[in-house]
UniProtKB/TrEMBL annotation:
<feature type="active site">
    <location>
        <position position="46"/>
    </location>
</feature>
<dbReference type="InterPro" id="IPR003719">
    <property type="entry name" value="Phenazine_PhzF-like"/>
</dbReference>
<dbReference type="GO" id="GO:0016853">
    <property type="term" value="F:isomerase activity"/>
</dbReference>
<protein>
    <submittedName>
        <fullName>PhzF family phenazine biosynthesis protein</fullName>
    </submittedName>
</protein>
<dbReference type="GO" id="GO:0005737">
    <property type="term" value="C:cytoplasm"/>
</dbReference>
<feature type="region of interest" description="Disordered">
    <location>
        <begin position="134"/>
        <end position="153"/>
    </location>
</feature>
<dbReference type="Pfam" id="PF02567">
    <property type="entry name" value="PhzC-PhzF"/>
</dbReference>
C-alpha cells in the first residue's frame, strides 16, 4: 500500500472548503505511466509526486495529463514540506520547468508561490455580469463534449465577476473537462493569470467557498497564496507492473 497525503488548498480562514490534493512523498521510483494511472484513479484535480523533498523536485498530474505548472498543487506541497521537514521551502522544482518556483510562507501560515504567466496552463477567462450569474452555472457531466455552437466554457475556463471591484474581490469558478474534472474547486494558475491580466491584487472567492489570493509581479509574473489544511493520509494500492 502507498501513503497519499490528502490536503485541502485555498481554504477559508476557518479551514473550510479548499481544493482537495493528493501528494506522494518519496515517489522517485514511480514511472510516468504509474503516476498518470494513480492520478486518474484518485480523481483529484491534481496529484503531486515528490521525488526529492530536500530539493522540492516533483511532478504534477491531473486525471488526464501532466502539467508543468499548477497553483494549488504547489501551494499544497509547500505547506506539506514545511509540515514534514520542519522548514518552509524557498523553492519548488517541477521537472517540466527550466527554473524553480519561488515559495514562501507568511507568519499566519499562508503559503505563496510565484509563477510565470508563460508557464501556466492556457486557461480561458470569461467575465460574467455578477456573482449570481457565476453561481448559477450548471456544467454538463464529464465526458460529454460540446457540439458545434454550444457553450465551450466547460473545457478549461475561469468564469468570474466582480464581487467588489474597488476592493479587488472576485467571485469565480473554473470548469476543466480538458483536464479530466468537471469543476476545479479552487484554481491557482487561472487566478494567477487573472491577476496578471487585470494588473490587480485580488481576493478570489472560488468554487463553493475557497479563497485564493493573487497579486501581479511586473508584467509577466504573479504570485498566488492561500491556506492549507492537512486531512490525513489515505492508503492506496500500487498497481502491479507487467
Amino acid at each position: 500500500m502507498t501513503d497519499v497525503h490528502v490536503l485541502r488548498v485555498f481554504t477559508d480562514a476557518d479551514g473550510r472548503f479548499g481544493n482537495p490534493l493528493g501528494v506522494l512523498l518519496g515517489a522517485a521510483d514511480w514511472a510516468a505511466d504509474e503516476r498518470q494511472e494513480l492520478a486518474a484513479r484518485l480523481g483529484y484535480s491534481e496529484t503531486v509526486f515528490v521525488d526529492d523533498a530536500s530539493t522540492g523536485r516533483l511532478q504534477i498530474f491531473t486525471p488526464a495529463c501532466e502539467l508543468a505548472f499548477a497553483g494549488h498543487p504547489l501551494v499544497g506541497v509547500g505547506a506539506l514540506l514545511a509540515r514534514t521537514t520542519g522548514r518552509p521551502p524557498r523553492e519548488l522544482r517541477p521537472v517540466r520547468l527550466a527554473e524553480p518556483v519561488p515559495a514562501r510562507t507568511d507568519h499566519d501560515g499562508t503559503v505563496w508561490v510565484r509563477g510565470a504567466v508563460a508557464d501556466a496552463p492556457p486557461w480561458e477567462h470569461e467575465r460574467l455580469a455578477g456573482p449570481a450569474e457565476v453561481e448559477g452555472l450548471v456544467p454538463p457531466p464529464l465526458g460529454r463534449s460540446p457540439s458545434a455552437g454550444e457553450d465551450k466554457r466547460w473545457r478549461r475556463t475561469q468564469t468570474w465577476a466582480w464581487q467588489d471591484e474597488a476592493a479587488g474581490e472576485v467571485r469565480a469558478r473554473v470548469f476543466a473537462a480538458d483536464y479530466g474534472v468537471v469543476e476545479d474547486e479552487a484554481c491557482g494558475s487561472a487566478s494567477l493569470l487573472l491577476s496578471a491580466y487585470l494588473s490587480r491584487e485580488l481576493t478570489i472567492r472560488h468554487g463553493r467557498g475557497s479563497v485564493v489570493r493573487a497579486r501581479p509581479l511586473g508584467t509577466d509574473h504573479a504570485e498566488i497564496g492561500g491556506r492549507v489544511v492537512h486531512d490525513g493520509v489515505r492508503q492506496v494500492a500500487r498497481m502491479p507492473r507487467p
